[in-house]
Amino acid sequence: MTYSGEVTVGGPADVHELKDLMITKVAVGPMDNNAYLLRCRATDEQLLIDAANDAHTLLGTIGDDGIASVVTTHRHGDHWQALAEVVAATGARTHAGRHDAEGIPVPTDVLVDDGDTIRVGQVELTARHIVGHTPGSVVLVYDDPHGHPHVFTGDCLFPGGVGNTFKDPDAFASLIHDVETKVFDPLPDETWVYPGHGNDTTLGAERPHLPEWRARGW
């Protein structure tokens, strides 16, 4: 089956099969949050991005192999409602951006800074610190050696715009700057974007709209 990235709460997961990595996307909770399960194909080690809600669904997706770690993209509550239960069930190590960890009620084992590497088996993800939606949001970049990059953006970037900055012009200026300089500038148009809510996109689909996002201020 061709991966579309279109999932609904209560519906089936969608699986993006890459040569070294399997990415399973599932939607959970009343705010239609996306959670992503990454599995290294060489080692079968797994990592979860955002234990957002519905621990039963997430643990069913994880399966009997468990997860080694879970990364919380940012401190907003809709992205960690199931974190305590998932960690209790799996013993996973927790990762979060250094400047958001204090806002997450489950202790963070690994504080993540800009440029840090997070591993899942033999696969490496690079964390980029993005300021604006929250003080410590992180996005994760997988630079696939066999194809184009993949980036998990949390609530920093969606189809049609950057994340909510709650009508704070300084926060928007910071967010659009960081998204441009740390995501759009270094990564090619083919880069696949996996956001915290809704459908996937590519940087190429969104790049032409950056000037209008700046002009409208959101």
Automatic annotation (TrEMBL):
GO terms for molecular function: hydrolase activity. InterPro entries: MBL_Glyoxalase_II, Metallo-B-lactamas, RibonucZ/Hydroxyglut_hydro. Keywords: Hydrolase. The keyword Hydrolase applies. It holds the Pfam family Lactamase_B. It comes from the Bacteria. Residues 32-197 form the Metallo-beta-lactamase domain. This is MBL fold metallo-hydrolase.
